[in-house]
Amino acid sequence: MTWEDFDGQSMRVVQEKTGTKLEVYCPERLQRYLADLPRAGRFITASNLTQPLGKRAVQKAIEEVREAIGVKTGANRLVPHGWRYTAARLLTDAGCSDAEIQSVTGHKTLAMVQKYRSGSDQAALSRRAQERRKR
User: Fold this and answer.
1) Phi, psi for residue 78 in degrees, rounded to 5
2) What are phi and psi of 22, to 5 degrees?
3) Which of 71, 91, 113, 132 is 20 to 30 A (C-alpha) from 85?
4) Total structural domains in the chain?
5) Same domain, 87 and 135
6) Per-residue pLDDT tens digits for 30-64
7) What is the distance between the alpha carbons of residues 68 and 53, in angstroms, rounded to a whole number?
8) Are 117 and 88 in contact (CB under 8 A)?
9) pLDDT tens digits, 105-122
10) What domain range is 87 assigned to?
């Protein structure tokens, strides 16, 4: 991604699997992180002033971060392939609608959103649904 893709609050991305163009709001901690990065060159993660990091370099960096934060192996293991699934579940648990989840994950159909969120915390969803009846 280029610095032009980040407006200080949102990031313009293309979902690799579907080709869907998205503008995704960045959580505040990501906004702060990006604001603190030096802006040397066109790309946010770059190998030099004019070229982005290659796919293999990004994969290696992700592996190092996963190792450093303790999510490369074991019960808390996170893998990049599952990040979209994890995002859908976390957003579901936060009470987001299917349309809101789709706007973050880039799924083309609501059926895929429903598939990805199906493993969400059923007990928490049940409680939230029953609490809404009180209103």
Assistant:
1) -125, 135
2) -130, 150
3) 132
4) 3
5) yes
6) 999 899 988 889 999 888 888 989 989 989 988 99
7) 20
8) yes
9) 888 899 989 888 876 767
10) 79-135
